[in-house]
């Protein structure tokens, strides 16, 4: 599966064919802190890279950032080694990849979770996380027995507030008298890798009545899921399918198809079809979704799936508009 069918419909995209660059195809990826096996965001990207490797037989250079100072160094080193394209993982790499793309104008670059840069050799992927979060909010509202659900975010930034706001909209549209508890883990990048703090926040929400907790917290979220499972409650994962973190205790996961973004970046570059610009991916573009399979079928019952699919169809058709927190730094249900 690739994103090709929706290229013409992307909301904001400046096309810039770079087929000549494909002659020196040498793909590279720089994972961010947490590592490529973080069971969340980075691992989603890795799944797309691995799919490309398995299908093409090509090698992909890679580096896993372990501290903030390594981002610029790693991206620069990949470019110096002929990386083409170089894929950066996460908004924290934005400044670095912007500078390196300018320094190496004849090479291709791409970055996930960024939509504000402007380089003719840079592809940017942005996702409508609020749409996918709305759907898992519907599920949480329907599954909750207490009428109280929770959300634990990682670093307190507008992107994560976007997840929280979409979730709350879905919950309250489904059950107007529900209570949604919300906590952010911190204000520095360390908030992405603090499972102990995530567990503490989850237990605090459970103590206040939450029986379902959704997280958007990277590695911190692993602590959330395990704590929720230990308390006999249900968690909602994010980015990748996180059922395996606590089998039987994960209601669903909000999928952010960064795997397809990574796969398409490398496939397009290899085929001489790489384009620069901003690609905005929501439910209509299959950029976000939720997990419904044999693992969680007993938890995510048919009536819940039907309600989620009905909401999904209405969002795609424009009958439901999910407010984007990043548009005005506000959430209408707060």
Sum up the structure in keywords.
globular; 334 residues; 10 helices; 6-stranded mixed beta sheet; 2 domains; alpha/beta; Rossmann fold
SSE order and pairing:
Blueprint: E1 28-31, H1 41-56, E2 61-64, H2 70-80, E3 86-89, H3 94-103, E4 109-112, E5 122-127, H4 129-143, E6 148-155, H5 158-174, E7 179-186, H6 195-207, E8 212-216, H7 220-230, E9 234-239, E10 250-256, H8 258-270, E11 277-281, E12 288-290, H9 302-317, H10 325-328
Parallel strand pairs: 1-2, 1-3, 3-4, 4-5, 5-11, 6-7, 6-8, 8-9, 9-10
Antiparallel strand pairs: 10-12
Helix pairs in contact: 1-8, 2-3, 4-5, 4-9, 6-7
Taken from the alpha-carbon principal axes, the silhouette is globular
In the sheet with the most strands, the strands line up as 2-1-3-4-5-11
CATH topology of the largest domain: Rossmann fold
Give the CATH class of the largest domain: Alpha Beta
Low-pLDDT windows of residues: 1-22
Q: Name the CATH superfamily assignment of the largest domain.
A: Response regulator
Task: Enumerate how many helices there are, as a single number.
Answer: 10
β-sheet strand percentage = 15-25%
| Percent range of helical residues | 25-40%
Q: In whole angstroms, how far apart are the ends?
A: 38 Å
Main structural class: alpha/beta
Q: Give the H and E element order.
A: EHEHEHEEHEHEHEHEEHEEHH
Largest sheet at a glance?
A: 6 strands, parallel
- Over all CA atoms, what is the radius of gyration? 19 Å
The counted number of beta strands is 12
Overall pLDDT: 92
The CATH architecture term of the largest domain is: 3-Layer(aba) Sandwich
